[in-house]
C-alpha cells in the first residue's frame, strides 16, 4: 500500500485500518474480474501482474482505456457511486489482488477521511477520463495527456431552458456534452441539436470573436467545461487537435472564420488509404444497359414494334447518363442520398430544357455558326445550373466533390431528356437508332462534364461565400468554350466524330484533375476531423449521422458534413 500512488499521503493509522479489511484474490490470465454493465460492490488493488481496462466507444468500436500493473487500483467507482460497471477489466498476466468491498469502504470513510477523499477525487477524474476516451474529440490523445486534461475540466450542470452561451458575448469556456441535449440557435434559426460526445464554444476561443450563436439546454444537461487558458495551451501543444477544431470551425462558421485560425502545421498531412468504398456497380450497369439497348435496337429494326422503338428510346437516352452519374457518385468519399441526385437529374431537365429551347428560338440561333454555338452554350449551361440551385444553401453539401456529382447529375439529366426530344424528332427507325447510339457514345464527353466542372468551381466558391469568384467565372468560360466548339461542328462527316472526341477528352482531363483535387480535399477534411484514422486506419462500423442523415466512413467518430458526434 505504501508503494501505491493512491495511498500517498494517507496516514499510517489509516493504512493499518484499511489493510485489515483487504482480501487476497489470485486470478489467471484471461479472467474477467469486472464486467461492464454489472453492479459493482468492490475495488481491487494490484499487488502483482497486469490488467487491461476495456470498453466500447460512442460508435461501438472496442476501446482499450488503460493497462494497469503493480500498485494500481481498478473498480473504485463502485465504492462511491451506485452505478453499474462502466468498463470491463480483464487479467492480461496472472495477478494477485487485494479486494476492498464497498460495505467496508463505507464503514472506513469516517475513520479514514484522507483515504476516502482521495478515492472520491480519483473517481471524479476516472469518470472524466473515461468519457474523454470514449466520447470526445480528445480521444486520440495519449493516455497521459487525457489524465492531466481530466483534472482541468470542471463538471457543470444546466436546467432545461437555461442559456449556456449567448450570441455576441465574449468566449471564456469550451464545453463537452456528457448527457442531455442542447440546441444551437442563431437569431431565431435553429442550427443544430447536440448530444453526448458533441462539443461547442470552440469558435470564440480559436478566433477571438464573440459567441456566434446562443446555446440553450433542451433537457437537464451535464457538461464538462474547459477554460480558455487551458484550452489555448492544449491546442498549441497538439497540432492534430488544432487541425480538428479548425475543421469544426469551417463546418460551423465557414471558410472565413476557419482561415482566421492558424494552421496547425506546415508539414504535409498524412492521408490513410481509402479502402472502405463499395464495389463499383457502374460497370455492371453499363454492360446491362448496352446489352438492353442492343436488344431493343435489333427488335425495333427487325419488327418495327412501337414497344421496341420506345424501349430503345428510353434505354438509349438514359443508360449513359445514369452510368456516368453512378460512376462519379461511387467516387465520392461522402456520398449523398440517391434521391437528391435523382431530383437534380430531373429538375435540371424540367427547368433547363424549356428555358434553353425557348431562348434559342427567340434569339434566332443558327446551326453551324460559331457565334450561335457559343450563345447556345451560355444559355444551356446557365439553364442546367438552375437544376442544382436548390442545393446552394444546404450546409451539409459543402464539398467540391458534391459540386462535381450534382453538376454531373444536372448535365446528364439535361442530356438524357434532350436525347428523348431528338429521338422523337427522328425520321424513321434507322435514324432513331443511330441517333441513340451516337449520343450514348458521346454523352460522357459533353453535358455532364461541362456542368460538373462549373458546379465544382461554384461549390469551391460557395464555401467562401463567393459564388461568382474568379475561379467560377474562368471555369464557366472554359466550359462554355468547350460546349460552343462542340455545337459548332466545323468538320464534316466522320471527321466530326474525331472533333467531338478531341473536345471530350480535353473536358474529361479537366474533370479528372478537378475530381482528384476534390477527393483529396474531402479526405483531408475527414482526417482533420477524425485524426485517429491516421494511426488506426478506417474501422468496420459505418454509421448514419443522426443530425444530417449522411453515411460516414467506417471507424470515424465525427460526421465530416455537419461535425456532430456519431453514435451506434
Strand content: 5-15%
* Biggest beta-sheet profile: 6 strands, antiparallel
Structure classification:
alpha+beta
Q: How many E strands?
A: 14
- Low-confidence segments: none
In short:
This protein has 568 residues and is an alpha+beta fold. 52% of the residues lie in helices and 15% in strands.
Structure in words:
- The structure is a single chain.
- The protein has 568 residues and is α+β, with helices and mostly antiparallel strands.
- It has four domains: 5-134, Jelly Rolls; 154-259, Jelly Rolls; 282-529, no CATH class; 533-568, no CATH class.
- 52% of the residues lie in helices and 15% in strands.
- The protein is built from 19 helices and 14 strands.
- The strands form three sheets. Strands 1, 2, 3, 4, 5 and 6 form a six-stranded antiparallel sheet that branches. The chain has a four-stranded antiparallel sheet with strand order 7-14-9-12. It has a four-stranded antiparallel sheet with strand order 8-13-10-11, with no helix packed on it.
- A hairpin with a 5-residue loop joins strand 3 (42-56) and strand 4.
- Helix 4 crosses helix 5 and helix 14 runs antiparallel to helix 16 (447-463).
- The longest helix is centred in the C-terminal third of the chain and has 37 residues, at 493-529.
- The chain starts with 11 loop residues before the first helix and ends in a 32-residue tail after the last helix.
- The relative contact order is 0.09.
- The mean pLDDT is 90.
